[in-house]
Amino acid sequence: MNYEDFCHIASVCTEQIGPKCRRFFSPSNFMKFEKDESGRIAILPFYLYVMRTVSLCLCAMQSSYSLHLCIKL
């Protein structure tokens, strides 16, 4: 996807999911990915990046919650 598509997807995601997904669609995130000769990035690596990031956030929240429960015991 090119940068124009990237920005369009960001708008659609923000409308459908909410503003929290906007952080994945920054210009600096687009620049992190390898581009082809036309300046496009592959969708799969971007998708995997988002899924890994979300998974790490969820894991950190679960760990924090578990630690909080252990401290109360």
UniProtKB/TrEMBL annotation:
GO terms for cellular component: cytoplasm; spindle. GO terms for biological process: cortical cytoskeleton organization; microtubule cytoskeleton organization; regulation of dephosphorylation. Keywords: Cytoplasm. It is found in: Cytoplasm. This is Serine/threonine-protein phosphatase 2A regulatory subunit B'' subunit gamma. It comes from Rhizophora mucronata.
